[in-house]
Fold this protein.
Amino acid sequence: MEETKKRKLSPKTLIGITIGAVILIGGTVAAYIFANLSDKQKYFLAEKESIEFMNEQIEQRYESEFDWLETTREKPTETNYELSAESDIPIIQGGMGIDPAQLINNSTISYTHAADMKNKKISGNLSANIGEIKVDNITFHLNSKQFMVGLPFLEQFISLKGENVGNLLQEIDSATFTGEEKIDFNILFEETLSEDDKEYIQEEYGKFIYDQLPDEAFKTESETIKVHDKSLETDKITMQLSEEKVKEILSKTLEKLRKDDKMKELFRQLLEEQLMGLAGMPEIKKEMDQTMEDYDTSLEKAKENIDGFQIPEGLTSTIWVHDDLIAQRDFNIQLGQNKERLTTIEFKGTQLLQEERQQFNLALNIEGGKVSLSGDLSWKDKKAEDSLKLAFDEQAFTYDGKETLKDGKRDFKRTISFQDPYTGDTQLIWNGTSNYKNDQMNEEHSFAFTDPNVDQNLFSLHANVEGKTVDSVEIPSKDKTTEIGTMNEQELMEYFETEVKPKFQGWMVEMLSATGNMEF
């Protein structure tokens, strides 16, 4: 912990803070546009309109899917997944003469998931047929207070309440655990940032940074450019911030963050969500407290170091606006701890955003390292033809997809490829259909993993999915559960030795006998 306290803010951290501030300048502040537009307002209005345009295109294309997602948040739903697989891997005999490919080809898994997010209830039921061995009724249930597991050989559900986790852990290992440990299952049902929280960030920081930007830092002129073979008349809007102004904005923002208790609390909430309810455990709580101290220290150190940071050319960001949308951009900044060791950050590219087709070619360069994203997305007459490519160094991900939507049914074929000169190329072919109607849905998916140099598929996974709304999600009542969190060491041993173990052994014998595989 002492090393953590002495840790100095690295150049990468300062770069991260700068980039984060720039993103805020380019994104969140876009919500604060007024009438009688100045060059400054035109700049951020174009950012806002471009983001919203792409969001609208996605929402229109997948309207039914988004509606179903909202249904799962607002109503109790039940979804059933049926999984099977095929393997064309050359036969490799495993132990006892078992062919893994044959085992895969003769296996199915069924999983039913029910959720009522508003009333904080989740349940699941898993069954499987592995070769000739059938396993049914492995279940789990979860609410805001406890987790329950149901096993096919036990009449009672094994239950563990979040408030009793510490007692159980201490009985298992008293040298490591204090008994004060807790798990907050409630956090699994809540969004980390509420709408009020998001509005707070926009109001307190979006508007704050926007107001710090001087009107005279923006300049507009007309310019004709060529984007994806089209000649466009554009408004070229340049934001030029001096080194002093960038430092001033960063310094004031960091100072505001340092004094903002609500933002500290939101940051802590984000950490707790990542820990999936384990934040109540003393050791983890101690680490979180240390992280929060580091949060304060890092902000303070960053603010102190800003004056000595070098941004000799300031920050320049230029956008070319056509029909209220950004058609081209060029962002550039050089920064570092001294003028002899400056890091150049460039983000530039073009995009042609139209109702039926969106084309873009963007690239981020950071001192010799380049990440590029190019794409061509089309949606016309309920038909889609898309291609995307994400490339970095000598590696690349590509996506090619075709879709048709008719009477609510979507048919699609998608190919995802990964190119790597060292490990070779791999490919995933994803075919399927989906149908969303009112309060129910169904999907069929087929995933084939292939090697482009081999004719046959190496492995295929098939999934059938059916979902519907239900009246409620049932959670076992208290009299059907056995709470292990309140047991002492002796009671735990007796429970598993006299109750769980013999019933499990009897169940295994019965199950294997039914398949004629006692020798297995």
